[in-house]
From TrEMBL:
Residues 1-24 form the signal peptide. Residues 155-182 are annotated as: Disordered. Residues 173-182 have a biased composition (Basic residues). Keywords: Signal. Residues 156-172 have a biased composition (Low complexity). This is DUF3471 domain-containing protein.
Length: 182
């Protein structure tokens, strides 16, 4: 079943594999869509940690693709470099793609050129500037299907340790509040 789901998205994935390094010309992202503190951390190199395929032509649950790896670099000038790897039955399949991206609100558009010519992928994203977690949902093929990529930004701040509360002393009892009665 997993193989058939991946085959449904194969035109989408194959377009990535056949892309060349000549990026399509697309306007650069606009800083106005992010708070200033978020913008700097958004432009980063991310590591792919998960990829889930949602197939609306099937009653089966979403497929979590195993063996996802590689990186996605989003640059402040609107260029990107995608180096995605998927572990398939035939072995490791690398997908390399260079192009331009545009963000507007929570929408993201990737434009690139492959052997078939210029192409564009549309989707949405969620970004957490505190953890540098990025989730990108791209519209898949056939229409209505989608692929969800989960990525982790490099240089993510370490998880904050919770400072334990001071232990109560065993030798002195806790002080009691005085009541207003006499």
């Amino acid at each position: 079943m997993l193989f058939s789901r991946i085959l449904l998205l194969f035109p989408f994935v194959a377009a990535n594999a056949l892309s060349t390094s000549a990026p399509a010309q697309v306007p650069t992202p606009k800083a106005a869509y992010f708070e200033a503190t978020q913008l700097k951390s958004f432009y980063n190199t991310y590591t792919y940690t998960a990829y889930t395929v949602y197939d609306n032509t099937s009653d089966e649950p979403p497929t979590e693709v195993q063996g996802v790896g590689g990186t996605l670099t989003l640059n402040a000038d609107g260029s990107y470099q995608k180096r995605l790897t998927l572990q398939m039955n035939q072995g490791l399949m690398p997908f390399s793609q260079d192009g331009q991206f545009v963000i507007k609100g929570d929408s993201i558009r990737f434009a690139f050129t492959d052997r078939k010519g210029p192409d564009v992928q549309y989707g949405t994203f969620r970004f957490d500037p505190q953890t540098l977690a990025l989730e990108i949902t791209l519209i898949g093929y056939p229409s209505g299907n989608r692929g969800v990529y989960v990525l982790q930004g490099q240089g993510a701040p370490p998880a904050r340790a919770v400072k334990p509360a001071p232990a109560a002393s065993k030798t002195t009892p806790p002080k009691r509040a005085k009541s207003g009665r006499k």
